Amino acid sequence: MLMQAIDPHFAIAGFLVGALVGVTGVGGGSLMTPILILLFGVSPATAVGTDLLFAAATKTVGSFVHGFNRTIDWRIVLRLAAGSIPGALLALAVLAWSNVGAGGARHLITVVLSVTLLLTAAALIGRNKLSALYGWRLAKLDDRSIAIATVIMGAVLGILVTSSSVGAGAIGVTALVMLYPRISTAQIVGSDIAHAVPLTLVAGLGHGAMGSVDIHTLVSLLVGSIPGIFVGSSLAARIPDVALRYVLAAVLIVVGARFALDAHAQLTPNVAAVGETQAASPAGK
Known about the structure:
The chain is an all-alpha fold. Helix content is 83%, strand content 0%. α4 (74-97) runs parallel beside α6, α5 (103-139) runs antiparallel to α6 (143-164) and α5 (103-139) crosses α10.
């Protein structure tokens, strides 16, 4: 009965994305949502909502592992959450106001998804350079200033992740590396994953309340992703991380550009319709 409820196509997609996350630590939302939209024809709102709960489930497992290894800085997690949860609630309110299933919300999600994918690609490519350029300046900030910057960064992530399901990984880790240069990479990654759990859970439940979560798709993705993460984690030491990050960034640039073109195509008919309405108005008077 359970096997009949599992779609093998979604399970395979979950496995591939899970394997990539296991190898690189990023790429979950930035690939899963575009795959659901472009390959499976899922609506943007449903793809985002389903992927958010998918991320909440998979990153809960990752958080337990990092917690067991004591690679989570809970001070950072609390600071990020202080900004991201209100940011997520704000984004949910905007999506609900614009009617998440309607054309306006579809266009908004497509635009945010395009921008966030391109920002994620930039973060993957320029992480080391950004750290070298600005890390030393940020290191001179006092703890209060760093705390405020972390909360603001959390708010930005909350809005981006809730609207697109993308950004918690590459963008969040890049920002934390610059803000906390004295903390080990393992703790940065662990803290980012731990923070992503409440953020994606709140955002995913909000999307679920608006009817934009497909439980059947979610279960199928999880069935594939769990073994995928284990396989990817076992291969992580054998595959060059830098090469994978550049390949992933190239894919995200192409996909982000595709969504930008889709957003432009969605906007053009609306602009034309407004122009026709305004042209017809004087005649009707």
